[in-house]
Amino acid sequence: MMGTIGQLSHMAAALAFAMLGLALAIKRSPSGVRLAVALASFLTAFWAVGQVIAGLYGADSFPWLSRLETIRSAAWIGVLLLLQRRSLGLASSPHQSFAVALGLGFVIALQLALDVMFQVGANALPLSEQHPGALLFVALRLVLAISGLVLLHNLYVNSGNDGGISFRLFAVGLGVIFAYDLNLYTLHFLIGEPNLSLLEIRGAVNALAAPLIYLALRQDGGGRFHLSRQAAFQTVSFSMIGLYLIAMSILAYGLKMTGGNWGQLLQVTFLAVTLIAGALVVLSPRFRAELKVRIARNFYRYRYDYRVEWLRFIEKIDAQPGVAGQAPFRERLIEAVATVLDCPGGALLEPSDAGGYELSSRWGWPSLDAPHIADSSAILLFFHESGRIADFDQLRREAASANGGPGSHGLLKLPQWAAADRAIWLGVPLIHREKLIAILLLERSLAARDLNWEDFDLLRTLGRQGASYLAEAETQAQLDEARSFDEYNRRFAFVMHDVKNVVSQLGLVARNAERHADKPEFRADMIATLNGSVAKMTDLLKLMGRENDGRAGGGAGDGAMGEADVARILTMVAASVRRQHAALELEGAELPAPVAGDASRLEAMLTHLVQNAVDASAPEALIRLSLERVGAQFRISVADSGHGMSRSFIRDELFKPFRSTKDGGFGIGAFEAREIARAHGGRLEVESRPGEGSRFTIYLPALPESGQGIRHRVHPA
Q: Using alpha carbons only, how large is the chain's radius of gyration in Å?
């Protein structure tokens, strides 16, 4: 007997669904979906009223209560099928509509028959004390609840594109009803008797769905929902899993009833075995592939969701390179095409240096004895002339028929290497700009397929797109190789520029040796110059062997930034240049000035700038070098009073490599100096006026603890 809480709960449900049905029925020109929802709402309200009457006057006062619940659940499932009639093919396929109606009608009729014959719906006794049909009755209630939830799952997942929030509200509202029923009858099935508390509060929970359903349907446009292929796959999969579990549970219950003392052990063992077997089947790639083929063949006019297939293909090909565990590009390309037809493997054949096509990469096909296809082979001529896909199964059938005449592939006959391996299924030509750049062989699909024009068109399109990716990859590889050579040549040019400076120093020593070779001071200076030149040449040879650091001429060592004393480097450069230009002054280099960087590259930078100042100045003209601390930086100035430069020359010519106004010059000294300064986190500035001279100023970041004693002063040019 239902208590007061149960009566109030179901009174709320009756009122809510009666108002919902009335609001939908009286709307002007209601759609078919609205009328179906209104009918289901009235049936739900009638069922709730029956629950109240049964609670007040006893279950015998309303004997059709349990049967009315069956009809109510069937009505809501009918609404869901109506919403998805076009997506499921029910609108265009009378045979399929009849099959669905027959299945749903059988489940409902069986429930009603069990209820009428054995009164199982109104019987409060435990299942073990009732007729065995009671167990089947509860299982059928679970079937309806699971079917409703599966359909609602698809409705919710796919509502984002077409129905917006309306379909989601509808799915959540109706989901409350089916989820509660699933929980209620699952406990009834497992425990053996219904939970009275859940039965009493059931009406209030159902009443919560009414406002959500009304909000979902208050706008026009119901019935525009379309089921995606992925949703169809999930629908069938979940339905099969649910029915499988129910069937296995019924069998396990039967074992428990007939097994005596061993019944519980047999029940647990049987359930464990069936769950493991079911998981193995569901997770099997062959099962999933076969299920996809069946769904595409029976539910849809076209076999593929081209938008999904294209996005999946692009996502696979454009995977981020260099990621740990990421497959090479060619393997990803094979996988992206092979998975369209659920092929477990594939192989890519590309032109070889010796002629013909040979294996360049494979994916998931270790047993393939990769063929070498000669340039004169018939299949290459077939690919070149037609651009079609080779169906080796069709060629095998034509070879077995011994017809001898032209077949579906023209005069092409089955190649010997394909006849020896029946796993070779399809040959896809990868054509880019009318040129065959590769051949993709696909292993036989996991599921039996009857290929038609859709399969061949999709493979041909993916083949052309894959060919463009292959061509792009080959072009990129050639570009990277050209960049490597360009970087090496550029680095060689910088080295030659430094060699020129070393040769100039050695030439000066050789000329002065004729007059001063007998002087001890000159000999000591000559030895120091020769040692410095040898060290410089050694550094240049090391530079030629370094990896590209991304800035030609601007590398700061081998990638490990050390500490360099700019004051010491500037002193050494001044002493070296003073041998050929005595009018040179250096100020501010008395104390250390450490910076983070490569001493050899910093020396090369300063040597370029000072040598340029010497070349631009008269023999007696003064050149001033200065070093000072300015905030967190060191400022190095190289000032001369030479012929100077115009603004346009500084802007357009000075830092352009391989342009020089000097005879025999390389035109890269200023460019290299700027790049070295940038590589060390600094900058190079130029001030110059024609006929008045130039000042090159370099700013380099100082180490935090450096430069405490540097004098802060500015020296005029």
A: 43
In angstroms, what CA-CA distances link 117 with 61, 121, 133, 140?
18, 10, 9, 16
Identify the CA nearest to 636 among candidates 566, 564, 706: 566
Short-list 636, 627, 562, CA closest to 599:
562
First to last CA, the chain: 110
Q: Residue 636: which of 663, 676, 665, 666 has the closest Cα?
A: 676
Angle between helix 32-57 and helix 4-25 axes, rounded to 10 deg? 160
d(C-alpha 473, C-alpha 431), whole Å: 14
Give backbone dihedrals phi and psi of 627, rounded to 5 degrees, phi first: -135, 130
- pLDDT score of 474: 82
Distance, in Å, from the CA atom of 365 to the CA atom of 344, rounded to the nearest integer, reads 7
Place of tokens 């009378």: 94
What tokens does 107 get?
């489940």
- For the purposes of burial, counting CB atoms within 10 Å of the CB of 550, is it exposed (0-12), middle (13-18) or buried (19 or more)? exposed
Instruction: Quote the CA–CA distance of 335 and 442 in Å, as a whole number.
Output: 10
Give the model's pLDDT for residue 715: 36
For the chain, which ranges sit under pLDDT 50? 1, 160-162, 220-227, 229, 231, 233, 295, 298-301, 547-560, 706-717
* Per-position DSSP letters for 525-592, written without gaps between them: HHHHHHHHHHHHHHHHHHHHTSPP-SSTT---TTS---EEEHHHHHHHHHHHHTTT---EEEES-SS-
Q: Please tell me the distance from the alpha carbon of residue 511 to that of residue 604, in angstroms, as a whole number.
A: 24
Q: Number of C-alpha atoms within 13 angstroms, CB side, residue 18?
A: 11
C-alpha separations of 62 from 56, 66, 531 in Å: 10, 9, 115
Phi-psi region of 330 (alpha: psi -120 to 50; beta: other; left: phi over 0): alpha
Sorted by sequence, the CB contacts under 8 Å of residue 415 that are 6+ apart come out as 371, 373, 377, 378, 379
Q: What is the pLDDT of residue 682?
A: 93
Distance CA 581, CA 564 (A): 26
- The predicted pLDDT at position 386 comes to 86
The per-residue pLDDT for 362 is 92
Place of tokens 């004098």: 711
Confidence (pLDDT) at 442:
93
Tokens of 286: 């062959």
At 346 the pLDDT is 93
Tally of CA atoms within 13 A in the half-sphere of 63 that contains its CB: 7
Assigned token pair, 308:
């999904």
Q: Tell me, what's the pLDDT at 552? A: 41
Task: Output the pTM of the full model.
Answer: 0.42
CB burial string 254-279: b at 16+ within 10 A, e below: bbbeeeeeebeebbeebbeebeeeee
Task: Give the pLDDT confidence score for residue 400 in this predicted structure.
Answer: 79
pLDDT of res. 565: 92
How many helices, marked H, and strands, marked E, lie in the chain? 22, 12
Residues 313-330 pLDDT 10s: 888 887 665 555 678 888
pLDDT tens across 277-312, in order? 655 555 556 555 555 555 455 444 455 666 777 778
The β-bridge partners of 701 are: 633
Q: Are 233 and 291 in contact (CB under 8 A)?
A: yes
CB burial of residue 584 (10 Å; 0-12, 13-18, 19+): buried
